[in-house]
Amino acid sequence: MNTPANIQTASEPAVAWTGLLGVLSSREKTVRQLRQEGIPFKEIALRIGSTEGNAQQIDRMARWRLARAKEWDAGLTVRAANVLNNCGIRSKAQALSAIKEGRLKPRRGPRNYGWKSHAIVCKWIGIPEPRKAKPNVWS
C-alpha cells in the first residue's frame, strides 16, 4: 500500500489529478498546483505562510491522497472497506449484488457490518439509505 513516505515525485501531468481535486483541502490544492508549475518549496512556503518542510509535507500528503483516491474503496470508512474486503467484494457492482442477494445485511451480515457501515456502503454505491426497521413494541 502506498504511504506518504514512499510516493514517488515523478512529474505527473496536471490532467492526471485535476479530476480528483475534491479529495484535497484548499491548502493541498494550492501546494500541488504550485508544484506542478515548478515553483520550489521555499517559495511555496512563503506564499502559504509556512515553513519549507511543512510545504513538502503538505505536498507529500496531497500526493498520497490522490494516489489513494484512485483505489476501489475510496470514499469508504476503514471499517466498511475492511468488511467488504473480507467478504471478497472489490467493486461497487459486487457490493450492490451482495446487498440485493442479502449477503450484506446490518447486524445479520458479516461481522462488524452494522447500520452505520450499511448506510456508508449504500451511499458509496449510490442507492438510497435504508431505514432501520421499527422495533416491535407492545403498547
Helix and strand topology:
Elements: H1 15-18, H2 26-36, H3 41-48, H4 52-69, H5 78-86, H6 92-101, H7 115-125
Helix pairs in contact: 2-4, 3-4, 6-7
Give an overview of the whole structure.
The structure is a single chain. The protein has helices at 15-18, 26-36, 41-48, 52-69, 78-86, 92-101, 115-125. It has 139 residues and is an all-alpha fold. It has two domains: 7-69, Arc Repressor Mutant, subunit A (Orthogonal Bundle), CATH 1.10.10; 78-125, no CATH class. It is elongated, with a radius of gyration of 20 Å. The chain starts with 14 loop residues before the first helix and ends in a 14-residue tail after the last helix.
Tally of individual domains = 2
Rounded to an integer in angstroms, the radius of gyration calculated over CA atoms is 20 Å
Number of strands: 0
What is the helix fraction of residues, given as a range?
40-55%
Strand portion? under 5%
Low-confidence stretches: 1-15
Write the CATH fold name of the largest domain. Arc Repressor Mutant, subunit A
Termini separation = 54 Å
Instruction: Please name the CATH architecture of the largest domain.
Output: Orthogonal Bundle
Please tell me what the overall shape is. elongated
